[in-house]
Request: fold
Amino acid sequence: MATRKPAAKANVSAKELTAWYRDMLLIRRFEEKAGQLYGMGLIGGFCHLYIGQEAVVVGLEAAAEEGDKRITSYRDHGHMLACGMDPKGVMAELTGREGGYSKGKGGSMHMFSREKHFYGGHGIVGAQVPLGAGLAFSDKYRGDDRVTFTYFGDGAANQGQVYETFNMAALWKLPVIFVIENNQYAMGTAQARSTSTPDLHTRGEAFGIPGEIVDGMDVVAVRDAGAKAIRHCRSGKGPYILEVKTYRYRGHSMSDPAKYRTREEVQKMREERDPIDHVREMLLQGKHATEEDLKAIDKEIKAIVTEAADFSRESQEPALDELWTDIYAEVH
Amino acid sequence: MATEILMPALSPTMEEGTLAKWLVKEGDTVQSGDVIAEIETDKATMEFEAVDEGIVGRLLIAEGTEGVAVNTPIAVLVEDGERVEDATPSGPAQQPAPADKTLTSESAPAAAVQHPEPVAVKVVSDWPDGTKVKSQTVREALRDAMAEEMRANPDVFLMGEEVGEYQGAYKISQGLLDEFGSKRVIDTPITEHGFAGIGVGAAFGGLRPVVEFMTFNFAMQAIDQIINSAAKTLYMSGGQMGCPIVFRGPNGAAARVGAQHSQDYAAWYAHIPGLKVCMPYSASDAKGLLKSAIRDPNPVVFLENEILYGRSFEVPVMDDFTVPFGKARVWREGTDVTLVSFGIGMTYALDAADKLAGDGISAEVIDLRTLRPLDTATVIASVQKTNRCVTIEEGFPVGAIGNHISAVLMTEAFDYLDAPVVNLTGKDVPMPYAANLEKHALVTTAEVVQAAKQVCYR
Reply:
């Protein structure tokens, strides 16, 4: 991974930096709390945490405009918080309560918000890629000047349907940004052990889709790359690939023994490349914020997460009648 | 304030574990994310990280302790400035409880069996008396249905292999490209998995896609998108994200195309909650059901049949003719035996009914038309009259639609049955190529006649 760029950036304001710090911190604290609630048995099943990858969604959301769509895999909590969904509703879905985004019927991997243009939350590796292209298809069909961020991991990048989608997205010039969140491990398989060529951003070349590598631990770099990709899509040139190099600190899911990498590797990444520490340094070194200012933000975030956790425990389990609802939409 | 650290659940099924090793000692300062212990589960040894920051006040469980129950306090963290001596455990941690104990599955039955209302089993026309009718092939009826719905709603579009310039591999979309243009009649590459997913995504985006599979045999490439993405999302989203889409194309055996091109998927799709499934026999049903399918806010699997495409039937000349889902059609009233079928199976059922009449057996013939929802009420009412039932389909015998009908009749009409229900299906073999073997693998009229006589003990 590239070495850290200098902290000072010409194209970013103190206000933006502060907002991103806040958003990234919210994701991290939320995920830590989710891990804790999982440990207490309040969250069940699969729970895939986003800790370490926060700069990816926060940077791209900073580039997005109202009406742009997003869709992702099962590691989705960060995406939902970054696009403005309510932490209370997300946490209550994790605990399987009626106050959750899917009334407790979806769980960690399956939440949606039409209001925030968040289209899930999909549990089958790679399946969200054609779905994202389909969302972009709907915008193009209607003549809406919107783009769809279609997130998937380095593991999904080897799925066949991804390439079927690349072909059609390029052929039909669909306004879709394929965001490959390369956290270097497909579950427990290191990229070098699963992938014949390491440069995933070149995977669109055969279809004429441009792509680039982005430092996913640097929120400013991600925002800038996102803005460039959006310009490409909105100008009618079709899809764009961003291979965002990132790192997940936690296991693939909660029950991951992490035998496939060393503790030192994780520790080194946390100490040297942490995306939140990076922004924190930029804020302090640029004298955009004082330690006191940042402490106040920490406190505010902690309160939001505590409130979400409390809500997720107080919200009732769904009524048993809910078992039978939402299977079919009513015919009008 | 002191914070208790509880024994974590590290997998969906973990109830207890071994506290293998402490990586901190009393008095150490820990940050959120620091690894503080190693915990052994039945599957693996896992690192356990601190969630909160603070100073380790007490270690309550010695390392090496086995069988530590999830949620047992294992350590106490104190804040900076707080005295370690103050950190006394507060007793056993509260077990997380379901929010409302009165709402457990033990205390309420999941679903009672719904007894259908009695219905009249009668030959009833789907259109008003006196309506002009014309003779039309199933092929033309399907095309007209799509054209009418595309004229009515600009969000409806057709995509699939060879639907545009080729005019349809089976000519179902003949003329549609000329009328609606390439924006709405879209030729896809031969990538079923991908274009089915794009169709589903477009439906999430608010459009009304009609996705044609050249045959449903190829839809196996796309079945994950049909089931996991299209059928389940409304439920998984708590009702927010519907998927109004139609997947259509020929299904089942054609003639001499071998095992990979000859499967009937009726039972496969009918199995899935969240899907609606149509399998029309006649041209009027093909038209009326396809129009209903395109308007339906849910994903619909629409199973056609290549051999039926060229058959002609009466179709009403009406501005807007639709057929509702979940309503079987009675083709022939009878008193001695009920023949239940759908799709091309109706050919054998109707032929057999003619032959049985010659032998003095009066057969009632029911076309299910839609398999989900399934009009069990009409079948039950008919069997209450005839006391005997034969089901006819071309799919494989294990887990067949007929098996389900038999189960419904056993539950709902047990006392009315005078003979075991017979399920006629395709044979339990991959479809052979040889003409004689293929014929033998499929249901025949002779088998229907024989089964009807069998249940009538004749």
